[in-house]
Amino acid sequence: MKKKGQLIHILFLLFLALSAIGGGMALIISPSGKLLGGLPLSILKSSPFSDFLIPGIILFFVLGIFPILIVWSLIKKPIIPFMEYFNLFKDMHWSWSCSIYVAFILIVWIQVETYFIQGVGWLQMFYMLYSIPMLILALLPQTRNSYALKTIKSHIIKSYL
């Protein structure tokens, strides 16, 4: 059974992933922004984009699919040597490190978005504030302990005995 902080951490990532998949899909299907309440293309005038297709693709994969994979990895804790190349916290499972990266990616995404649209709406404010508890939940001692490699290795050894 997951500890409370660990479970809430996973739920926060899952909510972000599902909302980004939904928003990204809407922008991919309708690059004009009509599916998302008629976003005007004029808000992109200061950006390198003429429509919402590329931002939708980035949103879908980077803040949608990637966090879904991280959620699965936080639950299953698979050993994937390739992912260790990206793990800056060598005493932790790579999925925990990636969950930290997702929160920072969200912060960067919102900052870039507000720069390009030259404004801040309620949605940008919500997700900027949303990134704070995502980081706090990941950094809680009970969550960190669940993904410490020594804890995972001892659990694996006990399951074989």
Your description of this structure?
With 161 residues, this protein is mainly α. It contains 7 helices and no strands.
Key terms:
single chain, 161 residues, mainly alpha
Structural class: mainly alpha
Mean pLDDT: 92
Share of helical residues: over 70%
Q: What is the alpha-carbon Rg in Å? A: 18 Å
Number of helices: 7
Beta-strand share of residues:
under 5%
SSE string, helices as H and strands as E: HHHHHHH
Largest sheet: none
Give a summary of the structure in a few sentences.
It is built from seven helices and no strands.
List the helices and strands and how they pair.
Blueprint: H1 4-29, H2 53-76, H3 81-84, H4 94-117, H5 122-139, H6 141-147, H7 149-160
